[in-house]
Specification:
Phosphorylase Kinase, domain 1; 12 strands; 5-stranded antiparallel sheet; 4-stranded antiparallel sheet; Aminoglycoside 3'-phosphotransferase, Chain: A, domain 2; 2 domains; alpha+beta
Length: 373
């Protein structure tokens, strides 16, 4: 799912990377043309927001009214699929839920346009980014509870208000489920979902020289993994998922810091139909990684709304190990590095190798116990 999701990423040590926005640009002059063409308005303020990793984000105000706008310029790694997935996701959100989300005003999923990029023009929601709020405020227990209640309501709507699909993958314009953003799938079973991703990581290990120091070890782990027999995951529901629902994509009001409310959820490009377990690997990190009390309050609120949690998802322990195994084989943030010879790279590679080996051993042990039952 999201490129921001990785159980082994170490945010304390960053490497310069030619990421999705490398070589992508959009100017004020281009913005003037786009806003006049699609809104018949004139820009008064055009601000680049330094928060996007996969996209360029601009906040736009106009002379003609007080409505505020967001212009999202797509990154270079995806062609059509990410833009169209977000547009379709927001269409479903508007049709079936009361989740506060941007309204699409115009878009182009074909970068062969006059601007040379994919783009989405949408309304800007009120509130402040929760990520920024947490940098300047220490949220109290009551404040976190207030946000959790709103979030649980919106997750329940995603799971139960939006019609479910019988496949795993991203949304397409025709209303069906297609490949994910990495152009894998779609899948009919969870096991195939995992095994295909492992094969995709095998290709990266073989083709990307950055992973050369650990390639043989990882390929050996994959060879062992391929022999495993897994239980049926038929009781694992497929639900509509945001795909990256952490605090950087949540807007909140802070008029009352003891009772903040969610005013918007943004960045729906990774949305699609996914096993409900995947959300706990790609989203909610702010609450899952807090103390035990907050994590249990979060699960309690979700379960009150009949949303499955790690406490109630069948085989969750096994699913967590599978995710840990596949997401650490060829770490996405070690691709396209400016300096792949940096000493930090070797440390990260060795860490990922250890994580994979441990996950493999734990998988083997758990599967053996299940077999003996």
């Amino acid at each position: 799912m999201s490129a921001n999701s990785n159980s082994s990423s170490d945010s304390s040590i960053s490497l310069e990377r030619n990421g999705p926005t490398y070589g992508i640009s959009f100017t004020r002059a281009q913005g003037d043309i786009l806003i006049r063409q699609y809104l018949n308005k004139n820009i008064s303020s055009f601000e680049c927001i330094d928060t996007g990793y996969n996209n360029l984000i601009f906040f736009i105000d106009t002379l003609e009214n007080t409505e505020r706008y967001v212009l999202k310029i797509g990154g270079r790694y995806w062609n059509k699929i990410k833009t169209e997935a977000e547009v379709k996701a927001l269409e479903l959100i508007a049709k079936y839920t009361t989740i506060p989300a941007p309204k699409i005003l115009a878009y182009s999923s074909d970068r062969n346009n006059e601007f040379g990029v994919e783009w989405i023009l949408m309304t800007r929601l009120s509130g402040q980014n929760m990520n920024e709020i947490c940098k300047t405020h220490q949220l109290s227990l009551n404040a976190k509870k207030s946000i959790i209640r709103d979030l649980a309501d919106y997750i329940a709507q995603m799971h139960f208000k939006i019609p479910r699909f019988n496949k795993i993958g991203a949304l397409t314009f025709n209303g069906e489920i297609g490949t994910d953003l990495n152009q894998l799938g779609p899948w009919s079973t969870y096991e195939q979902f995992i095994r295909d991703r492992v094969q995709a990581e095998t290709i990266i290990l073989n083709e990307n020289s950055t992973f050369a120091p650990i390639k043989d070890s990882m390929l050996d782990a994959i060879h062992q993994f391929e022999k495993f027999q897994f239980p049926s995951f038929s009781n694992l529901p497929l639900v509509f998922s945001h795909g990256d629902l952490d605090f950087q994509n949540i807007l909140i009001s802070i008029d009352d810091l003891e009772s903040p409310r969610i005013t918007g959820i943004v960045d729906w490009e990774w949305a699609g139909s996914f096993p409900c377990s995947e959300e706990y690997f790609t989203s909610f990190n702010y609450f899952l990684n807090d103390n035990d009390e907050i994590r249990m309050i979060f699960f309690d609120e979700l379960e009150k709304r009949n949303v499955l949690t790690p406490r109630t998802i069948e085989h969750f322990s096994l699913l967590e190990k599978l995710n840990r195994f596949v997401t650490n084989l060829a770490l996405w943030h070690l691709t396209d590095l400016v300096n792949p010879d940096d000493l930090i790279v070797n440390k990260k590679l060795e860490k990922s190798r250890c994580i994979v080996q441990l996950a493999l051993t734990e998988l083997q042990d758990e599967l053996s116990k299940d077999t003996k039952k």
